[in-house]
């Protein structure tokens, strides 16, 4: 019975975080471009959904932790985190990469124009999310050197994740080439649900703490 | 119509400066580029070639091949 539930959980995760985004991307009314550009877009979309999945592979998702071994879930959370944070850190560079292979603006010039458009809300959001993501990655990698208690780090990591995903989702819905209405609604719904799952834990902890005092 | 769509514009205004026939304007509300006079598009591809985030699509079915000098 438990094996079957585990199988269903894995299938649900695959459907919700890979298959459905791909379906929305396929049905979207966005003009298709070269293979390289579409491959980069797809990689970015899947990486973003993997970051959303991270919220459901955390303590917030108590129901899933009942079915799976916590150690395995934490290991998966770490692997997915390091892999997809690394990919998303390359996102600004991947946008200008195809410019190396076609006529027009120089990739370096395109990159500097993109980063210096400070009057664009989407760019400011993207840069902020990129900085937070770097902070998330580095603070996880060097957790032991931060001199924080594990429980303090866990709250820090959770709060940073919520702020990051809020800014990143806003950035994606504002500037994303493939974020039409269905994709935007789906991203916002998953980000909202993930943040609520985590925030619920903090409120329960706070309530218990106040109850003991 | 030749210039088809703008998806993912960051509002840098490069396409507005490069368009020789003033097809694209900046939307005052969103600050993003919008196709305002599509009928005036001469399919020169300059907006697409100079957009830093590759947000502009030129309709392929009505497009003429872009002439790029070499040498």
Structural summary, described in words:
The complex is a heterodimer of chains A (213) and B (71). Chain A is mainly α and 213 residues long. Chain A has one domain (2-212). Chain A is 79% helix and 0% strand. Chain A has helices at residues 2-27, 35-56, 62-67, 70-89, 91-96, 107-115, 121-141, 150-175, 181-212. In chain A, helix 2 (35-56) runs parallel beside helix 9 (181-212), helix 7 (121-141) packs antiparallel against helix 8 (150-175) and helix 8 runs antiparallel to helix 9. Chain A is globular and about 65 Å long. Chain B has a single domain (3-62), classed as Alpha-Beta Plaits (2-Layer Sandwich). Chain B has helices at 14-18, 46-50; strands at 3-6, 24-26, 33-35, 56-58. By secondary structure, chain B is α+β, with helices and mostly antiparallel strands. In chain B, the strands form two sheets. Chain B has a two-stranded antiparallel sheet with strand order 1-4. The interface between A and B is medium-sized, with 27 and 21 residues.
């Amino acid at each position: 019975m438990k094996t079957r539930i585990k199988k269903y959980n894995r299938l649900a995760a695959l459907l919700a975080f890979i298959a459905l985004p791909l379906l929305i991307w396929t049905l979207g009314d966005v003009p298709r471009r070269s293979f390289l550009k579409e491959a980069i877009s797809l990689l970015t979309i899947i990486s973003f959904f993997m970051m959303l999945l991270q919220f459901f592979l955390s303590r917030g998702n108590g129901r899933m932790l009942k079915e799976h071994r916590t150690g395995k879930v934490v290991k998966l959370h770490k692997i997915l985190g390091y892999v997809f944070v690394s990919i998303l850190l390359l996102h600004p560079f991947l946008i200008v990469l195809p410019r190396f292979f076609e006529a027009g603006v120089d990739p370096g010039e395109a990159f500097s124009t993109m980063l210096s458009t400070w009057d664009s809300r989407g760019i400011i959001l993207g840069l902020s999310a990129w900085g937070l993501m770097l902070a998330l990655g580095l603070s996880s990698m060097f957790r032991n050197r931060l001199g924080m208690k594990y429980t303090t780090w866990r709250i820090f990591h959770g709060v940073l994740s919520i702020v990051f995903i809020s800014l990143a989702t806003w950035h994606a819905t504002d500037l994303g080439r493939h974020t039409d209405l269905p994709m935007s609604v789906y991203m916002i719904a998953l980000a909202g649900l993930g943040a609520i799952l985590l925030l619920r834990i903090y409120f329960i902890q706070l309530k218990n703490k106040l109850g003991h005092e | 119509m030749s210039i088809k769509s703008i998806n993912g514009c960051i509002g840098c205004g490069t396409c507005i400066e490069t368009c020789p026939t003033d097809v694209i304007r900046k939307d005052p509300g969103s600050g993003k580029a919008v196709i305002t006079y599509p009928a005036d598009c001469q399919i020169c591809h300059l907006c697409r070639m100079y957009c830093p985030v590759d947000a502009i699509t030129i309709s392929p079915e009505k497009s003429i091949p872009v002439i790029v000098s070499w040498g």
